[in-house]
């Protein structure tokens, strides 16, 4: 059910993103430029606003710029596919942005004395990195790991909604969102490792660990 919802949501976003992607390509904007701009926007939202306790502004800015993760990928496909450097840049900037978001959340929660929330934020950061690492390592070994209920955009949207609700007075929302996100991310790691294991079982060995 989660996967069906995820696919439906992404299909709806695609109808919005594709016209914007075409317009940017016509204007001469490159996918890499969108990647860098999106990362800068997330950094501003997370470190400039969220870490200082301006949760509503931070959540809105981070959520908007996190959606550029869909935009740059769409632009790359429309322009003939992502280059190797483009794929490298995208993955690298994703890690920078994720570190800023969860680092900012952990910092703000620490200033509020919410140690459980800090632990949840750090767990989200670690689990999110594992989600990405498992996929990258699998692809490096000639397999795929494009499965799971918590991909990057969904993870940032969850923490964004939690931050927004806490910012308008629903105090436990951010901590709840973080623990939910940590659980979903760990589950996704398990899904991807299982998926890779099944592929490895059906393929001959010969790749050193």
TrEMBL record:
One MF term in the entry's GO annotations: phosphotransferase activity, for other substituted phosphate groups
Protein name according to UniProt: Phosphatidylinositol phosphate synthase
Organism per entry: Micromonospora krabiensis
Binding locations of Mg(2+) 2: 69, 90, 94
Signal peptide bounds: none
Transmembrane portions of the chain: 23-47, 53-71, 116-134, 176-194
Reaction(s) catalysed by this chain's protein: 1,2-di-(9Z-octadecenoyl)-sn-glycero-3-cytidine-5'-diphosphate + 1D-myo-inositol 3-phosphate = 1,2-di-(9Z-octadecenoyl)-sn-glycero-3-phospho-(1D-myo-inositol-3-phosphate) + CMP + H(+); a CDP-1,2-diacyl-sn-glycerol + 1D-myo-inositol 3-phosphate = a 1,2-diacyl-sn-glycero-3-phospho-(1D-myo-inositol-3-phosphate) + CMP + H(+)
E.C. number: 2.7.8.-
Pfam families in the cross-refs: CDP-OH_P_transf
Keywords, ordered alphabetically: Cell membrane, Lipid biosynthesis, Lipid metabolism, Magnesium, Membrane, Metal-binding, Phospholipid biosynthesis, Phospholipid metabolism, Transferase, Transmembrane, Transmembrane helix
First-listed, main subcellular location of the protein, grouped into a coarse class: membrane
Record-linked InterPro entries: CDP-OH_P_trans, CDP-OH_PTrfase_TM_dom, CDP_ALCOHOL_P_TRANSF_CS, PIP_synthase_PgsA1
Binding site for a CDP-1,2-diacyl-sn-glycerol: 32-35, 73, 77, 83
GO cellular component, one term: plasma membrane
Annotated residues for binding of Mg(2+) 1: 69, 72, 90
Pathway(s) per entry: Lipid metabolism; Phospholipid metabolism; phosphatidylinositol phosphate biosynthesis
Swiss-Prot/TrEMBL GO biological process terms: phospholipid biosynthetic process
Role played: Catalyzes the conjugation of the 1'-hydroxyl group of D-myo-inositol-3-phosphate (also named L-myo-inositol-1-phosphate) with a lipid tail of cytidine diphosphate diacylglycerol (CDP-DAG), forming phosphatidylinositol phosphate (PIP) and CMP. PIP is a precursor of phosphatidylinositol (PI) which is an essential lipid required for cell wall formation.
Record text on subunit structure and interactions: Homodimer.
Cofactor comment text: Contains a di-nuclear catalytic Mg(2+) center.
Residues of the active site: 94 (proton acceptor)
Gene3D superfamilies found in the cross-reference section: 1.20.120.1760
